[in-house]
Amino acid sequence: KNEVEQSPQNLTAQEGEFITINCSYSVGISALHWLQQHPGGGIVSLFMLSSGKKKHGRLIATINIQEKHSSLHITASHPRDSAVYICAGLTSGSRLTFGEGTQLTVNP
Amino acid sequence: KAGVTQTPRYLIKTRGQQVTLSCSPISGHRSVSWYQQTPGQGLQFLFEYFSETQRNKGNFPGRFSGRQFSNSRSEMNVSTLELGDSALYLCASSFSASPSSYNEQFFGPGTRLTVL
Fold this sequence. Notes:
heterodimer, A: 108 residues, mainly beta, 6-stranded mixed beta sheet, 5-stranded antiparallel beta sheet, globular, B: 116 residues, 11 strands, 0% helix
């Protein structure tokens, strides 16, 4: 069992739909990253959070420390949101442990 | 402010050779982390440097090594390359005010290494 697990692995949505990607972790973490990776490899950090909720534009990330669970929500999805979304827990100080990623495809 | 840069972007080597990859962090960032991404294993942590000292290390063989210079630029080296070392190698920098603080990481574009 991976220390950080994501679901679903693949997600296809229609433009405008509300999207949720889930992340569960079985290890102690001090913070959790949500990352976005586009084809070609470039990774962008979307959020780093250790409690509660953060919002950037159409993206919302929440974390429940007691339940060891985090969610990434995308409101009013758009084809340009198509990418791989990866959650990663900050463990052992500076070490990131990654989930397997969720491939999101948003169709027009 | 310029982002994290990595050189080279693409590299082809043969088994048994060694390779050195370079990472220049965002100005003012003292922490540099390295990651390996493969289709089979996903993203895995290699090591992290803070102010020229290795602060953390992942579960990779000793063939993988790194260092950080006084200007925070970092290099990683892989000796005796194996086919399985073919991967995207990413570095990320973060602003850490002290050895015990950890902040959001900003990723470079990566170096794609192919071992033949």
